[in-house]
Amino acid sequence: MVRLLNLIQNENMKLYKRLGTWIMIGIVVFAVLAVGVFSKFIMEPNENANWKERMQMENVQLQKRLEESPLKGAGETYVKKQVAINNYRIEHDIPPVDSQSLWGFMIDATNFTGIIALFTIVVAGGMVASEFSWGTIKLLLIRPVSRTKIILSKYISTLLFALFSLVLLFGFSFLIGSLFFGLGGADHPYLVYNNGDVQENNMITHIIRLFGFNSVDLLMMVTLAFMISTVFRSSSLAIGISIFLLFTGPQLAQLLSNYDWVKYVLFANTNLQQYTNGVPLVEGMTMTFSIIVLIVYFIIFITLTWFVFNKRDVAA
Question: How far is 270 from 247, CA to CA, in rounded Å?
Answer without folding.
Answer: 12
